[in-house]
Write a structure and sequence with these properties.
By secondary structure, this protein is mainly β. It is built from 2 helices and 10 strands, in the order E-H-E-E-E-E-E-E-H-E-E-E. Strands 1, 2, 3, 4, 5, 6 and 7 form a 7-stranded mixed sheet that branches. Strands 9-8-10 form a 3-stranded antiparallel sheet, with no helix packed on it. The N and C termini lie far apart (about 70 Å).
Length: about 200
């Protein structure tokens, strides 16, 4: 396990309430899935400290996990801030790398092309480093689609055409499930229609 010792100080609730969502803090790395007592991870508050309305403070770690705690509770690990003149030294868990969870479209893919793809990744990063944890392969139809973000209509129907923005043009709506929309917006997938310019030319 790769860790780094850093000088830090524990923050009181009043100090946490002065932090914003861009301030880097350290929270306990101990979770239900992975028991790491006395170890911390870099994190950011999920909402500004000034918006705290009681209950527990929630922070999102760089490993995309959400941790809740009461800063002033002696029974909890608390929230720390890096400080060279800090009174304590904490063990901070380091990142080992990233796990890529992505969709690759390989035209006319066969076993040989996939083997070449994995071989190139292992050559770039090391044969013992790149591991295939999960492989989901499926054939996709030869069709191009437009992915739109459209405003959900309110009130009575027929009140004008909905406002929409194109998000992507894809060979298959594989990316649609990864696109997140704000409240009041929805996903629309349509068969791609190339834009036709009817402007007469000289």
């Amino acid at each position: 396990m790769n860790t780094e010792k850093i000088a830090a100080r524990r923050l009181s609730l009043e100090e946490v309430m002065k932090l914003g969502v861009k301030d880097r803090v350290f929270v306990s790395a101990d979770t239900a899935e992975l028991k790491l007592p006395d170890c911390y991870v870099p994190a950011f508050l999920t909402e500004s400290g000034e918006d705290f309305k009681g209950g527990s403070i929630t922070a999102r770690t760089i490993f995309k996990e959400e941790v809740s705690c009461l800063p002033d509770s002696e029974d909890e690990a608390g929230i720390y801030l890096a400080d060279e003149s800090g009174s304590v030294t904490i063990e901070v868990l380091q990142s080992a790398g990233v796990v890529l969870d992505l969709t690759l479209f390989v035209p006319g893919a066969d076993k040989g092309s996939l083997t070449a793809l994995y071989a190139a990744a292992r050559q770039a990063f090391g044969a013992d480093i790149v591991q295939i944890w999960r492989q989901g392969l499926k054939e996709v139809p030869d069709v191009k689609v437009d992915i739109f973000e459209e405003q959900i209509p309110r009130g009575r129907k027929g009140g004008g055409s909905p406002m929409r923005d194109r998000r992507a043009i894809d060979t298959y709506p594989t990316r649609a499930e990864f696109i997140e929309f704000p409240a009041g917006r929805k996903l629309v997938v349509e068969v791609h229609k190339p834009a036709v310019d009817d402007t007469p030319t000289i």
